[in-house]
Write a structure and sequence with these properties.
heterodimer, A: 19% helix, globular, B: PmbA/TldD fold, six-stranded antiparallel β-sheet
């Protein structure tokens, strides 16, 4: 990382322009991925990234440059390019640009007990193999297993022309297990990919065996799955990764990226009812050790808990500094990016629907014919229209209030505006699941989450037509 | 970086081979919004990826700050990585091989910042003026990049190439009777000066306006034409079925399909990294293996899988030159490069006439999640329009299309003539299928 004096010199140089704000984001990241097939290590890859991104604002215009050559020879011409793109470049003495950087410290909310770099590779491979062996032992029909263990440590240092100098280190670990089940010609898969913003101690808390068993359970269920019927019907969406529905149907549309430019269906709706009364939702980047947590956002502002929706009323957007300027609002500490190779923007952290009071069983009451979506795949949304889609990885048909048989090939579509109003029951079993979220500032770790919810009517896409 | 020093020292430390891959990229981008420049971006990144072979196993380590003083430390990490590999597969570095190199026909004229700003401003104005239903020009952007890669290894291989690309994009939102739809257009542009803002405005607006008034259609089985862009995105998301790596591991639906009919006899699939009609042309893959044209599926029969060095060794065959990385930092995996379904004779209009009544799907969403790569089952949000008596009727939205890709590809009625590579490395013409499940009302 660059020294304080060097950073101050670069920031001052940035301000010798029409810029009213400048920021330097430095990053060093170590990551390793171990991959295994049938409990044999297939590959071990490491990546050591390091670079810096410099951003200048003039009102709501922003210019951004990045490089991994962090010396005067490369950074100064880049700064000059950025200044020229923004407007006038000032000469020596034409503008007072003196600044002093004052380091700001925050308590580490995500302490690490077992640093992955201190653990031998063979021990890390054994974590995957334990999981794969448990998957294989789950049922003789499990014929193949695939596993990956990902460990990352990202250190960032952010300095800006307001004199702030902030650092943060984010450590994450994730185990991704895929189990394959075969019965004659029928070949199906099931997966489970939990992770945390913790060191390897997380795998003492969440046993690798439980990960493998869950993947295997899902693959075996899918062997018996029939084609999913299609059309509009009530849907019960289970907890944990089921929260991807809120992430897609609503979360992205509450990011300032779309809202600030009036490119979201929820723009201009603060204080208005956008969801059913039983829905409250939160984006919280401060949950200790969570996959989407960090101490500060990628503009150096402390992470926080944001109540997005309270009893159906829209309370807050997720706002970064630049879009805050457009909206005339303060940043909510929501600025994130994949790496120095991306200009940051407003993003989610750990986003979930809060626990309700209905029992899980009561969600099925009165459903003549519907879908129970137990495990989700991913999805996507167009914030401008609110139209979203997401895939159901493990689903079941509900008939007369009872789960009857598993179904495959289901997807759910709708508009965020409509679905939030159609949630009619929220149970009490809140859990979060881990995902990678893609948007203009790259792919970042986020938690989704919810208790099991019921949506009174949603379009289910499947192959069985009656 | 003193590469020969790295190679020599790696040998002394116990690695039987060392490969150094350097990827250099420089980009410049400008976006325009609300009558002014919205953002400007510039970048320069050099990434180095080092691959070591130890006892027939390969390990990969990528780094962005290379230090010749740290050779021992870095190579030791690589050796530790390679020694952990327990699978029986072996890998090796490539020796230099001769090939007839081709050169991309693309000619790029680099615009000045003033030219870029003026053109983006003109396009914004042209879109606003083109249709009273324009609610907002959501984004206009210009992006240019220069990339090069250099591969050097201990077997004496040395390969270098460089490419450039320039892309213009525009987005618009239109509104009618309270309904909002958006459209987006990406164009590869060799000379920005020759771009007519009115033409870009027309193309950008086309898709958005067409979707106004779209609504669900009743659920059921429909004759369906996947228009070339939808077909390209669906096929593109499933080309991993041809990966010799997945076939060898038994994870591709084509694992036992060699020389059998997998698609309709009307379908022929070709992969040709040297195809000069494409934006990206590669004489070598990312292992330095010369590339070549392969017919993967010939008249519906699966004839050839794609391979890199490792997957080929596992199956007792030779690399097809498809060992490409997903970025400089990754190890080479097996990827298609300029892969297409060969076009047929009929235009989209002629396919619609042939279909009579049915659905044209123009766009798919949710491809990253709504596909099962093991079974090729898919269930996806889609957009399009109904066809009645061979003519375009009303738009269809908030519907899904679902099925099994291998089953679908046996129901081909006709293959269209409208293959267009644009900026893609996988492309398809429009294809008319006898039936497919649609869910809506």
């Amino acid at each position: 990382m660059l020294q304080k004096e060097t950073l101050a010199r670069y920031l001052s140089l940035c301000l010798m322009s029409d810029a009213d704000f400048a920021e330097i984001y430095e990053e060093e990241e170590v990551s390793e991925t171990l991959s295994s097939l049938n409990a044999e290590v297939e590959s071990v890859n490491r990546t050591l990234k390091s670079g810096a991104g410099i951003r200048l604002y003039r009102g709501v215009q922003s210019v951004y440059g990045y490089t991994n050559h962090t010396d005067d020879e490369h950074l100064i011409p880049m700064i000059e390019d950025l200044k020229a793109a923004l407007g006038k470049v000032y000469g020596h003495g034409e503008k007072d640009v003196s600044l002093t950087l004052v380091p700001v410290e925050y308590e580490n909310n995500n302490p690490v007990k077992i640093d992955f770099e201190s653990v031998p590779l063979a021990d890390k491979a054994e974590l995957i193999h334990r999981s794969e062996r448990a998957a294989k032992a789950y049922d003789p029909r499990i014929v193949k297993t695939q596993g990956r263990l990902l460990n990352v440590r990202q250190s960032v240092q952010i300095s800006n022309s307001e004199g702030r100098l902030v650092g943060d280190t984010r450590v994450r670990t994730r185990l991704m297990i895929e189990a394959y089940a075969a019965e004659g010609e029928n070949f199906q898969s099931g997966g489970y990919n939990p992770g945390a913003g913790k060191g390897l101690e997380y795998w003492e808390e969440k046993s690798p065996e439980s990960v493998g068993e869950e993947a295997a359970r899902s693959a075996i269920v899918m062997l018996a799955a029939k084609d999913c019927p299609s059309g509009k019907m009530p849907v019960v969406i289970d907890n944990e990764f089921g929260g991807v529905i809120f992430h897609e149907a609503c979360g992205h549309s509450l990011e300032a990226t779309g809202v600030a430019k009036n490119q979201s269906v929820f723009a201009g709706k603060l204080g208005q009812k956008i969801a059913a009364d039983c829905v409250s939702a939160v984006d919280d980047g401060t949950i200790p050790g969570a996959w989407g947590s960090e101490n500060v956002d990628d503009e150096g502002n402390p992470q926080r808990r944001r109540v997005l929706i309270e009893n159906g009323i829209l309370k807050s957007y997720m706002i970064d500094r630049l879009n805050g300027r457009r909206m005339g609002m303060e940043s909510t500490g929501s600025s994130r990016r994949q790496s120095y190779e991306f200009e940051p923007t407003s993003r989610m952290s750990n986003t979930f629907i809060c626990a309700g009071t209905d029992s899980f069983e009561s969600l099925f009451e009165g459903i003549e014919r519907g879908l129970y979506a137990k495990k989700m795949g991913g999805g996507s949304v167009n914030p401008m229209t609110g139209e979203f889609n997401f895939s159901v990885r493990e689903g079941y048909l509900i008939e007369n209030g009872k789960i009857t048989y598993p179904v495959k090939g289901a997807s759910l579509i709708g508009t965020g505006q409509e679905i939030l109003l159609n949630i009619d029951r929220v149970s009490d079993n809140l859990e979060r699941g881990q995902g990678m979220c893609g948007s203009s500032s790259g792919s970042i770790p986020t938690d989704v989450g919810q208790p099991a919810i019921r949506v009174s009517s949603i379009t289910v896409g499947g192959t069985a037509n009656e | 970086m003193n590469k020969q020093k790295w190679i020599a020292r790696a040998g002394e430390l116990g690695a039987q081979g060392l490969e150094i891959y350097e990827g250099q990229s420089a980009e410049r981008s400008v976006t325009w919004f609300g009558g002014q420049m919205d953002s400007f971006g510039t970048s320069s990144v050099l990434g180095t990826s080092i691959r070591a072979i130890v006892d027939g196993k390969a390990a990969n380590l990528a780094l962005e700050a290379v230090d010749d003083e740290k050779i021992d430390e870095t190579v030791s990490l690589l050796i530790e990585q390679a020694k952990l590999i327990s699978s029986k597969d072996t890998d090796e570095l490539r020796a230099p091989e001769a090939t007839d190199e081709v050169k991309s026909r693309a000619v790029w004229v680099k615009p000045s910042m003033t030219q870029i700003r003026e053109k983006l401003a003109a396009i914004e104005e042209a879109i606003k003026a083109a249709d009273p239903r324009v609610r907002q020009v959501t984004e206009i952007g210009w992006q240019e990049s220069e990339d090069s890669r250099e591969i050097t290894n201990s077997k004496g291989l040395h390969v270098f190439d460089a490419s450039r690309s320039q892309v213009l994009y525009a987005g618009v939102a239109v509104e009618e009777n309270g309904e909002v739809k958006d459209g987006f257009r990406v164009e590869v542009v060799s000379d920005l000066a020759k771009i007519d803002p009115a033409e870009i405005a027309k193309k950008t607006l086309e898709n958005a306006v067409e979707e106004l008034g779209s609504r669900p259609i009743p659920s059921g089985q429909y004759p369906v034409i996947f228009e070339r862009r939808a077909m390209t995105s669906l096929f593109g998301a499933l080309t991993d079925m041809f990966s010799g790596d997945l076939i060898g591991k038994g994870l591709s639906p084509l694992k036992d399909a060699a020389d059998t009919a997998i698609f309709s006899e009307k379908i022929t699939v070709v992969d040709d990294p040297k195809n000069l009609d494409c934006l990206s042309v590669a004489n070598y893959d990312d292992e330095g293996c010369p590339t070549r044209r392969k017919v993967l599926v010939d008249g519906g029969v699966f004839r050839q899988a794609l391979h890199n060095t490792k997957s080929a060794a596992r199956m007792g065959t030779v690399s097809t030159g498809n060992g490409f990385k997903s970025g400089y930092a990754s190890a080479p995996s097996v990827r298609p490069m300029n892969c297409c379904i060969l076009p047929g004779e009929k235009s989209l209009d002629e396919l619609c006439a042939e279909m009579g009544d049915g659905l044209v799907i123009t766009r798919l969403a949710g491809l990253h999640a709504g596909l099962n790569h093991v079974t090729t089952d898919f269930s996806l949000q889609c957009f399009g329009y109904l066809v009645k008596d061979g003519k375009r009727d009303r738009g269809a939205a908030l519907i899904t299309v679902a099925g099994n890709f291998l089953d679908l590809m046996k129901k081909v009625v006709s293959v269209g003539s409208d293959l267009d590579w644009e900026y893609h490395t996988v492309a398809c013409p429009s294809i008319f299928f006898s039936s497919c499940a649609i869910a809506g009302e």
